[in-house]
User: Fold this.
Amino acid sequence: MSNNVISSLEEKMKKTAANLRENFAALRTGRASAALFDKIRVDAYGDKQAINQVANISIPEARLVVITPWDKALIGEIEKAIRNSELSLNPSNDGKVIRISIPPLTGDRRKALVKTAKNYAEQSKVALRNIRRDGNDELKKQLKASEITEDDEKKAYEDLQDLTKRYTAEIDKILAEKETEIMEE
Assistant:
């Protein structure tokens, strides 16, 4: 019975690590990336939609993003949404496409991005600890209901602790990669 608990908790921990990667993809570094625009919503057809739902995003150069709206009438709305986002980007349009030059990051901006990345990683670690706590609580309930033995519970606790350590190390690795990416010129 405790194996089911462990495998479901491992799935939750995997999702936590995947969520951290998604959050990091949206953090602006000195390089152009289509993922930067994943969280920006555009007023289109009376609804808020993701930019990639109303336009094609391409990266022709390392520091250039070109957004081609499928409906040219949305070009102003897309430009406005990018300007109003927290990315601090200055898009320009020629009536057909929007071009965004990704400026190199300043030293202060790099430090601020690393701090943000560390906050995301810490939130993920807290989520892992909460998952572990929930698993421990479930194991106690199973022991109390005589669904597992004390030995099974002890083994499951150890497995859960090992799992938590493994995913905490993975989060640290993901953070180190992102820090390196942010700090490189």
